[in-house]
Amino acid sequence: MSSIRSHIIASGSYLPERILTNKELEQMVDTTDEWIYQRSGIKQRHIASENETTVSMAVEAARKAIRNAGVSPQDIDGVIVATTTPDNTFPSVAVSVQAALDIPVGIAFDVQAVCTGFVYALSVADNFIKGGQLKRVLVIGAEKMSSVVDWEDRATCVLFADGAGAVLLEAREDSDGGILSTHLYADGRMKELLYTNGGVSTTGQSGKIVMQGREVFKNAVTLMADAVTAALEKNNMQPEQIDWLVPHQANSRIIEATARKLNLPMEQVVLTVDHHGNTSAASIPLAFDEAMQAGKIKPNQYVLFEALGGGLTWGSALVKI
Ligand code: UT7
């Protein structure tokens, strides 16, 4: 019996040119560079200009992934975009990417699981591929979080940022690599911990981010560790077999806590929160692409993705590159 696996054959990313430093934020709200860095590990972040949108960033990231893969857009049959900040309520960001890159008729839609969006989208794409329905799928995380940040709320505006990352998945038969397993979770009873105070069917606008940071923090440490344990158990693997942890980049203290639970030295953790901030669904593919382009992540290595976000949603994915 032949088995199909989804391989990550390339990645790409895009960051807006404009960098917003902690020092600049000191001029905007009652905060300090020291507070932001100590509590979150963030030093600076990229913020989109008025002309840069989730679609435009997603297109650039996807274009690079396609180029790095050396394939033609004609050979892609699926586009799945994880985003919470689409250009329009509809159509999806995914169809705009499809049109911009001349990707032929296929499947294209968005996935909304906030900061866990990329792991959800990866899982959805993997299931389409394993089911034999798709052969090459672009999975993109793209966000313009600056558009849903309350720039007067010092508790959140210092954290979130903009950008996009993309991976190209390809179906391969009889392979022992690729996506080994994905693990998705949600518990809507915790939806009040992190949300926007509006939406199209209520206020007619997207609303702004409201977060109970401390509560989210506590849940993040335990739930992401659970998701990581699930991935290891499913694949009969020990933590020391993991080559790289590529976590959602919300807070370096959360990331360090997860690494400690895995007994993984920080040298094997891809950390970008210091210069990317929290880009929600874009954070994992942005971090992954940075490590790929730097030549850190190599073929046949085991990479573990993990994330937690509003919902609460959380999850993990174990991949052999
Ligand atoms: O990506 C989705 C998932 N999101 C996360 O994983 C985020 C999880 N949460 C966190 O990362 C952290 O909770 C934060 C970085 C958001 C906050 O760190 P904390 O250590 O939990 O601080 P806190 O919220 O308990 O606030 C401590 C103090 C408060 O003052 P009092 O009540 O102790 O007087 C806040 O008002 O810090 C104050 N504070 C600030 N002070 C200076 C809150 N924001 C700021 C600020 N600058 N920007």
Q: Which features characterize this protein?
A:
four-stranded mixed beta sheet, alpha/beta, 33% helix, 321 residues, Peroxisomal Thiolase, Chain A, domain 1, five-stranded mixed beta sheet, binds oxa(dethia)-CoA
Overall pLDDT score = 97
Task: Specify the number of helices.
Answer: 10
Largest sheet: 5 strands, mixed
**N-end to C-end Cα span:** 23 Å
- Give the count of structural domains: 2
- What is the name of the CATH topology of the largest domain? Peroxisomal Thiolase, Chain A, domain 1
Overview of this protein structure:
Helix 3 packs across helix 4 and helix 7 (213-234) packs parallel to helix 8. The protein is built from 10 helices and 13 strands. The two termini are 23 Å apart. Helix content is 33%, strand content 26%. It has 2 domains: 4-173, Peroxisomal Thiolase, Chain A, domain 1 (3-Layer(aba) Sandwich), CATH 3.40.47; 178-320, Thiolase/Chalcone synthase (Peroxisomal Thiolase, Chain A, domain 1, 3-Layer(aba) Sandwich). With 321 residues, it is of the alpha/beta class. The longest helix has 22 residues, at 213-234. It has a 5-stranded mixed beta sheet, with helices on both faces. The mean pLDDT is 97. It has helices at 22-28, 33-40, 54-69, 93-100, 117-130, 154-157, 213-234, 252-262, 273-276, 283-293; strands at 4-14, 19-21, 44-46, 78-82, 107-111, 136-144, 162-173, 178-186, 194-196, 209-211, 244-247, 302-309, 313-320. Strand 12 and strand 13 (313-320) form a beta hairpin. The radius of gyration is 18 Å and the shape is globular. The site of oxa(dethia)-CoA has 20 residues, from helix 2, helix 6, helix 7 and strand 12.
